[in-house]
Give the backbone structure.
Amino acid sequence: MAKELIKGNEAVIKGALLAGCDAFYGYPITPASEIAHAAAKYFPLAGKPFLQAESEIAAIQMCYGASGGGSRVMTASSGPGLSLKMEGISYSCGSELPIVIVDIMRGGPGLGNIAPEQSDYNQIVKGGGHGNYKVLVLAPNSAQEMCDLTMLAFHLADKYRNPVVVLTDGFTGQMMEPVEFPYPNPGDFKKHHWAAMATPETRDSIINSIYLDPYELQEHNEKLQKKYAEMEKNEVRFEEYMIADAEVVGISYGTVSRVMFTAVDVARNKGIKAGMLRPITLFPFPKDKLIELANFDRVKAFLVSEMSNGQMVDDVRLATHFKKPIYFFGTMGGVVPQVEQLAQEFEKIIKT
Amino acid sequence: MAKDILTKPKAFYDNFHRKPDQNKQDTHYCPGCGHGILHKMIAEAIDDFEIADRTIMISPVGCSVFVYYYFDTGNLQVAHGRAPAVATGYKRTHPEAIVISYQGDGDLAAIGGNNILQAANRGENITFFFVNNAIYGMTGGQMAPTTLLGQKTMTSPYGRKAEREGYPMRVLELLSSLEAPTYLERVALTDAKHLMKARAAVRKAIKTQIDGKGFSLIEVLSACPSGWRMTPTDAVAWISEKMEKTFPVGVYKDVIKDRKPNTWTRMLEKVPFEKYHEILELTGEPMEIEADMSSVLDIYKNPEILIAGFGGQGVLLLGQFLAEAGMRHCWNSSWIPSYGPEMRGGTANCHVKISEKRIGSPIVAKPSILIAMNLPSLDKFEPLLKPGGLLIYNTTMISRAPSRNDIEILPIPATKMADQLESLRVANMVVAGAIQEKTKLFDEIILKDCLNTVVKHKNFIPLNLQAIDKGKEYVENFGK
Ligand SMILES: Cc1ncc(C[n+]2csc(CCOP(=O)(O)OP(=O)(O)O)c2C)c(N)n1
Ligand code: SF4
Ligand SMILES: [Mg+2]
C-alpha cells in the first residue's frame, strides 16, 4: 500500500494501471480531462499506448479493437462524449468485449456546463445505445473509490466479458483525498484467451455482433440476458449508514451521497431517525435490499436525492413496488444539494 | 452466387463454415461483383507472405460485412465506418499483427470519413483496401460520396447534380495531401492489365505494413452490377469508360523507400508490473504521524476551510498543502477546487476539510476558517463564516475592515510580506504559517515536510519555508 493525496480523476489512472490496463484511448472534455492527462503521462512510462483519438466515437472504437485483441483497455469522458460513445458501447455489448468506460458527469442537456450533475443516469444505466444490452455501472463517491472501483471495473469487465462504466460526477473527479494504492496482482497482466490475438492458436477467433438468423440472434440475446441476471445475482454492492433503526431512509450516490451522509448526522442530532443506503452498483441495483427496507413497518418513507430531474428515483420506485412514499429532492445545472436542505427534507418527511 | 473463386488461396477457409446458407463454397457476392476478386488478391498475398497466423481482417459494414466468412485469419467485425479506429486500437496494442482494414465507399468516405482521415494523418502502420463502387451496394443502391455526376441511384433518382449533392469525392487525392501516408494507389478491377496492377498494389500495400513502413491505402474501382443495374460485362466497361475519368488510376504517393522501418510500428517496451509503484510515483514514504486533536482549541478542531482569492495567489495550492498536512497526521482530509472557466475569470477558491471523523460532504458551506486573499472573496464569503469562526484576510489587497463582529479576525499583509521575500507567489505560505500559529493544528515538522509534496520545483522550498516562518512570526507578535 502507498498513500497519496490525489484527485479522483488521477486515482482512476493509477488504479487502472495497477489493474493491468494495457491501453488508454480518449478525447479531452472537462471535467474528465485529468484522466486523459494522467494516462498520457503514465501509460508510456509503463510501455503502454495512450492515444488521443479524433473523437469519442473513435476512442470507444479503438477500445473495441484493443479489447478484441485481448487487451485490457479503457476510455474516459463526460456526458457529451458518452452520447457519442453509445454506438461503441452497443457494439461492445453485442460482441461481448470487456472495456472500462469512465463517465465524469457534467451539466446537460446539450453543452450544458461543466459543473457536476447526475443526469447521465438513464443514458448509462438504462442503455443509451440500441439493443437489449446492459452494462455494469459502478458509482464511486470518493477518490479512494475512484481507484478501487476502477480496478474492480477491470475485474468485472473480464469476468463477464462486458463493458463496465464507472459513473460519477464532476466533484468526485476533481476532489483530492488520501488514497491508498494496492500492489498490482500478476494475474491481471494476462491476455484473454478468447480474443483474436494474431497468433496461430487464436486464428479462428472472431469478434462479431452479427447474427443474421432471428432465432440465432434471439439465442444470443438470451445468453446476454442470462449474463445480466448473473450480474444481478452476484454483483450488487451498496453501503448502509445508520439504517438499523431508521424510519426514513435516504438514497443517493456519488457526491450527493456524501452530502446525505452528513445530513443524516444532522437529522439524527435533531432526534430524527434517518439513515441511508448508497448504491455502489447502479446496475445491478440493490433491489432486494430496498424491498426488504420497504417491508419494515418502522420504515415510513424514502428520500431520494440526485443532481438530476429524478432518474434513479424511478429505480427506487420499481424496487419498492411503491410500498412506502418516496420523496425526491433534486438539483440540476450543477447545483449541489446542501446538507441543511437534505436534513430539512428528512425532518419534513418524518413530520408529515 | 458467384463462381469466381476457382482455386482457393490458403488464407480462405476451405469450407465457408460461417456462411449460414447451404452453399459453403461460393461467396455471397452477386455475379460480376468486384469484392470477390479483391478478396482473392488479398488472400493470395497473405499466402505468399505467410502471414495468415498473425493477420487480423477488419470487416466493415457494407456488402463486405461478411469478410469473416472467407478469411482464415483473426477477424473483427466492426461498426459502419469505424474500421480505421478499431484497427488503430488493435494495432497499437498488437504492433506485431498485420491489420487489414477492408471498407466500401459509404463506409470509408461518408460515415467514417474523419476516421480514415485521422488514421492516415497519424500514419498508422495498417493496410487499407477501399472499394469504390460509386454506390451503397448493401442497402440497395443509394448515392455514395463517390457517385458520379449524373449517376442515378435510389437517392439521386434524377442523377447526381453538383449543385445539389456536390462532386464525387476523390479520397486518394485528399489523402495524398497529407504528410504521413506512405503508399497510396488507385487501381481498377477491369481488364487483365489492370488486374495485374491491382494484384501488385495489394501485395505492395501489405508488404509496406510488414516492413513497418506505415500507412497504405489502395482505392479499388470495383463493379457493382446489381447496384448499377447492369450486366457484369457492361459494369466493367462502365468502370473503364466512366469511373476512371473521375477517378484516374495510378500511384498517388509512394515514399516507401524514404521511410525507415520500425519507426512506424510504435513498438513499446513493456515495463514489468513490479515496477509500477515506481512509475506511478508511489514509492516515496512521506513523513507522517498518528496525531489527535485533543490539544487543539475546540473552535479549530476538525476545521472546514474555505480559501479564496485571485488565480495566481496560490489559493488552490494552499488548500492542497493543508489537506496534505491533514492526511500526514492520519486524519481524513478533502480538497475541492472551483474548476473550469470560473478559474479563467480570475477568481479561484477551494474547500478543505480536515477531520478526525469520516468526511461526509466535502463541500464547505459554512467555513470555520475563511481565508480571503482579495476583496471580492471577503465580500462574497464573509457572511458564510460560522459564528465564532476565524477570518484571515489579506490586508495588502483588502482595504475595508470585515463587517462581522461575531467572529475572530486576523488581518495579515500577506502579499506585502511575500513581496519582502521577493516573491509574491509565497503569500499563500505566509498565510499557512499564520494558520498554524493561530490554530496549532499541525505538528510543525510534518507541516513543513508537506512542502516536499506540493511544491513542484524543489529549489523553491527554502523560500516557502521562510514564508511559513514569517507568517508564524507575524501571528506571534500580533497584538503584542
Ligand atoms: C450507423 C449505420 N448507418 C447505416 C447503416 C446501413 N448501411 C449498411 S451498409 C451501408 C452502405 C454501405 O455502402 P458501402 O460502404 O459503399 O459498401 P458496399 O455495400 O457498396 O460495398 C449502410 C448505409 C448501418 N449499418 N449503420
Ligand atoms: S450489391 Fe454490388 S457490391 Fe454488393 S455484392 Fe452485389 S454487386 Fe457486389
Ligand atoms: Mg459502395
